[in-house]
Amino acid sequence: DYRHVTNDVGKGYTQRFLAGDQGGNVVEYGRIKTEIINRGSGGHIGKFIFSPSIEGTATEVMNIGTGGVEVTRGNISGSSTSTGSFGDGRFANNVGIGPSTPNAGTLVVSHATDSSIVIQSAIDGGSDASLFFKVASGATNENKKAGIVFRDVGTNGVGDLYFLNDSATDGGNATVADNTAMVIKSAGNVGIGVNN
């Protein structure tokens, strides 16, 4: 069903979906809208907006445009066989990789035979791949009082492994320079209480 709309940005065509309810009333169950978001000499750029009725009001929940799919309300869910990719992600509660019900405040990685977490720094030459521990409130980048740091010292990922523990009662973070409790050098030597 082709419908011509005005050429103005923000304008579009709305398709409403109506059906009868149990009381015999005609009600709206949702809308799909096409909207112009940019005008150019080569043609318009548009998007689709999906708005099911929530408590009697058509409410935008998802739109599809040139940048991809954006969910503006609710959650994204899929089956155990779903695949996808996200540039960035934030999870407000539990995260489970493998199990369907991870415990509160934990990250659980589970596989039938082998499970692993890889912390990678993609830059060679003095870069770190680190895991820090924090058991205090405050800003994100403070009170990280212990950690494990793998520091690149050679080619093909060769490095030294540092174990950190900071006993200072301040908001600072544990560092290799000041708080190394033990180090395992790439050659196999072990130092306790020193960072070299």
Structural commentary:
The chain is mainly beta and 196 residues long. It is built from 1 helix and 13 strands, in the order E-E-E-E-E-E-E-E-E-E-E-H-E-E. The strands form 3 sheets. Strands 1, 2, 3, 4, 5 and 6 form a 6-stranded antiparallel beta sheet that branches. Strands 9-10-11-12-13 form a 5-stranded antiparallel beta sheet. The chain has a two-stranded parallel sheet with strand order 7-8.
Termini Cα gap = 73 Å
Number of β-strand runs: 13
- Low-pLDDT regions: none
Helix content: under 10%
Overall, the morphology is elongated
Specify Rg, calculated over alpha carbons. 27 Å
Residue-averaged pLDDT, rounded? 77
N-to-C SSE string, H for helix and E for strand: EEEEEEEEEEEHEE
For the largest beta-sheet, the strand count, sense and barrel status come to: 6 strands, antiparallel
Counted by DSSP, the helix tally is: 1
Strand content: 35-45%
Derived structural class: mainly beta
Provide a concise account of the structure shown.
2% of the residues lie in helices and 39% in strands. The protein contains one helix and 13 strands; from the N terminus they run βββββββββββαββ.
Please tag this protein with its features.
single chain, 196 residues, mainly beta, 6-stranded antiparallel beta sheet, 5-stranded antiparallel beta sheet, 1 helix, 13 strands, 39% strand, elongated
